Amino acid sequence: MKPHYLLALPLLALAAPALADPPTGLDAKVEALRKATGAPGIAVAVVEHGKTTLAKGWGVRKLGEAAKVDADTIFQTGSTGKAFTAAAIAILVDQGKLGWDDKVIDHIPWFRMYDPWVTREMTVRDLLVHHSGLGLGAGDLLFVPRGSLSRKETVKRLAYIKPATSFRSGYAYDNILYTVAGQLIEEVSGKTWEEFMAREVLKRGGMSDATATYEARWATPDRAFAHARVGGVLRGDGPNSVLDEREELGRAAMPAGGLALSAKDLAQWLKIQLGHGALPGGGRLFSEAQAAEMWKGVTVQPITQYPGGLAPLTPKFSTYALGWEVEDYRGARIISHGGGVFGSITHIILLPDQDVGIAVVVNSEDVALLRGVAHMLADHYLGLPDLDWPARFGAFMEQRMAGGKAALATVKAAPAKVGPSLSPERYAGIYRDPWYGDVAVTSGADGLRIDFKTTPRMAGKLVHWQYDTFVTRFDDKAIEPAYVTFALDAEGKVSRVSMKPESPIADFSYDYKDLDLRPVAEVAK
188 and 107 in contact (C-beta within 8 Å)? Predict the structure, then answer.
């Protein structure tokens, strides 16, 4: 997955001769940065000219325990896995089993988008480049923060998600179409995405520690545990704490970001990418022709001027390819991608013209450490002056958190002392959204409660806010709370329920705003 505050910042790079070794004093500097940010652990891989020049870990796998992070410790790598799913499809293209521009419906006859024309025209390539017309993060609540649906059922729900824009008209990041890509791999190969990924990509690619299922990750003793700051005013505020690793994202979305890899595995992946599909020990994972396809920009991304100390990151062009972002900095070509699942974040940078690859993974949501180290290394290998990227990212994240807290405080300062209009039992009922499914509101001695039926253990209290709007207080404090607004008809009955995140800086995958919940009795009419 790709939380926007973790991963949307473009990469700084500049064409220059690559240096032969990691920066002097890197070991001590990374450890000092880790301690300063409070992150439990970090691992880094660097590859230059086909050789691993660094694969190392710092810190601990889990707060409160002594086990150290090393080069073999596997981390959840989030949406950097999208490039792996693209590579799996590239293998099938090489085998002649499908083509990038094949229609999806020719391989998955039951596939449907909301618009019949888009259903007919959607190609394999379209699944991977974020220009489908779906809104940002559309459908993510089917598997965020957890999920109960099969991959096939998740794909079927696409038929009910209304587009936000026209097909192929603009960029909007999504995860659900990579779920379709995973289903496509199963339909074409006869193997589940998990089986195909484990055997045909990870094993053949020499990534011996990597896992493609939760069970395999849990069975790996040398694994990093997820951590996050969930005890403060907003997520990201307060000290890090260990998250329950069994409360995983929905398995249907594994093709969008469900892999776990070690620094050694990531070094192997960097070599394969920089080698255009060639395996370090001989042979190929995918052809050079498919490597070129995967790095070919398809969807133009809007350019945003980054604020203050991050201004040098602003590219002149930015495109999305097949699981990769392709952009520039002062004429240098950059191939990169970020990844984030709850409590674990990743950033991968490829400098093709310098033949250098960099991967950084952190077992918490400490962006300043992740991006600071990644950019520090990029600058080094591009021969640029040290801009102290950890400090710049740290300042940006502090300002962002302060702004979010201030905005929330402003809203909370003066709620209207009006409502609720109905007695608690009159809000109770089953409300249904066409793509998400059912949300139940119940009334009892302790007041109103809400339960998202498609999402296991996503339930909690509804506390009155103002008018006919309530705010969720989920039993699981790691789940982003939402404002829940009940609209009444002329007879004073609930006719519709809408939602939006309480936090002004909530991750986009909490796409509450896309829900259009109606009373089940009304839906049945």
Answer: yes
